[in-house]
Fold this sequence. Notes:
The chain is an alpha/beta fold. The chain is built from 5 helices and 7 strands. 61% of the residues lie in helices and 14% in strands.
Amino acid sequence: xxxKKDVENEIFQVDSLHELVEVYGQxxxxxxxxxxxxxxxxxxxxxxxxxxxxxxxxxxxxxxxxFSSGGRKDLTKVTFLAHNxxxxxxxxxxxxxxxxxxxxxxxxxxxxxVRLNPEIEVTIVGRLGRNLFLQxxxxxxxxxxxxxxxxxxxxxxxxxxxxxxxxxxxxxxYGRYKSVITQTPEVFEIxxxxxxxxxxxxxxxxxxxxxxxxxxxxxxxxxxxxxxFEQSVQESQLAKLASRIVSMDKANENIKEWxxxxxxxxxxxxxxxxxxxxTNMLSSVLY
Length: 287
């Protein structure tokens, strides 16, 4: 049976936990506000860049069609980089916990994919992701990288990009921010060589390419993936921070209920002890 002192000690410990939860929530809120606008604006920027890339590819497709005796049927992909012919799935996770369920949700989608195809090579970003993977696939080989949960380390980011860009097909799994209360698992896929669209625009924009359309497309092929991957890392950070805010808010409510129950238990013990004292006093008077 609990004593009053035991309950008081537990209340003190739970109050300390409550303070910790509030600090985690406040830090996550401040950090989320700092990067949210940047991430959302980058979404629009990359959409615009991708539009320009498609126009450039369309122009290159027209150029190739002029020199192709077989017509467009032989034109499927164009690439300017060397690739290893393999497929890789990359999981952007976290280094620490308290990020709600978004990391686990993304991991579930990632694990489903890599289990379907034993030939897929695995890349893990973040210690939490590595632990999850080892628990579920302890015998499977993987490549590991460490990136910060907040902020950008350009040197480490470059290492991951250089590793991934050598693959023929790349799938990157990450959490995507939709709102403070909604974060979803997402995957973006990119293949070596960009597909040439057979449905060319009827009235295309006319561009003058300098130095050459081939050099511009090579720049796009190398830089667009790096930009997309960096955006995915930042999207993952934003989703994790939002998920932490929600998680800490739920924890806060649970702790309040916990403290309420403990205080009720303390009051019950006090009343019980008081009743025993009165019974003892009455017994001493009667006997």
